[in-house]
Amino acid sequence: xxxxxxxxxxxxxRMQPQFSAVLAAQxxxxxxxxxxxxxxxxxxxxxxxLRVADVALKAADVRPASQxxxxxxxxxxxxxSKQAEVLAAGQAILDHLGHSxxxxxxxxxxxxxxxxxxxxxxxxxINKFRRGSLxxxxxxxxxxxxxxxxxxxxxxNEAEKAASITVVEIRAVGRFGRLLVSGTESDAQAAGDxxxxxxxxxxxx
Length: 205
What we know:
Elements: E1 5-12, H1 17-26, E2 37-44, H2 48-59, E3 63-69, E4 74-80, H3 83-97, E5 108-115, H4 120-129, E6 140-147, H5 152-162, E7 166-171, E8 177-183, H6 185-204
Antiparallel strand pairs: 1-2, 2-4, 3-4, 5-6, 6-8, 7-8
Helix pairs in contact: 2-3, 5-6
């Protein structure tokens, strides 16, 4: 039997409008809205997320937007308009697992890029797979890749808080999480700095 790993435990106190909209567009279950609190839990082996969901949903008044089981990992998102309910669900999960939040794998930034004056053809390619807003030619694009994947949600929410940007894509499933945001060069850089700082802080705790 594979050894259990709490890969990510990510609490977001207040979802920003674009972040929640992209999450809602990807949701398999209950659709979240801006202002709600949410929690991401990522585990290995992937099937363990089924028990995690069972424990959380029976312990608190929360709703799931996504439950994903991949070859290696399982990921669950839970949200509520009441922050206390999300925290209660998270504590029930940790108690069941016999872990603390600090036992989760710390986030690592794998790569970052700032592309200025995006070419129209590259914008078209990116717009084919994005689930957020359209990437406009001539704008600047900040890209971040991190592991474990679920931490990219924290990065996205903090990026939106920090600058006037457009959220193009949030991909929080798999070995790496990816975030794409666009705007003016200064706004894209400020958002990128905030996203990276959030993950760096998480890695240091």
